[in-house]
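Before the break, one more example. Copy the sequence into your notebook; we will annotate it together after we see the structure.
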Amino acid sequence: MDSPAVPRPRALPFLFAFASGGILTLMAHFNGTLGHYGGPFFASWTAHATGTVAAILLIALLFRRGEGRALKGRAPLWAYLGGLSGGLTVIFTAEAVNSPLALSGTLALGLAGQVAFSLAADRWGLFGLARRRLSAKDAASLGLIAAGSALIILFGRVSL
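Here is what the structure looks like once it is written out:
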């Protein structure tokens, strides 16, 4: 019996995901630098003020082009938690980057936290997602990420 054909992955989404990882690393570095000179709250306020100005300019541009009228409807209440979690992420990142964890340890633990939370969201159907039973592959992925994080944090400062 033949299994159904699995569509071949396209290169562009992989490129976007890889680029977003690079941008995330730059963001963590910039926020860490801001946190070093002005503190973690200054880093968070600066990052979010910049994002607010960019969002206002983008919305103004959309309305000027006549496309802003499509921005209607109400977001679910939980969608507004993104601002809270984003602010806390910048504060925690700015603090952790300037600790013995440094940039690589901070990013490794951040990745482990993202994967663990996404697996929990899949398992319990959080945020309107379909519930999904976790597989051994999911557990192995999380275990490898945790092991890699531990190697970076515990042995990353060893010089050859």
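Residues 109 and 149 are 6 Å apart (CA to CA). The radius of gyration is 20 Å. Try to locate both features in your own notes.
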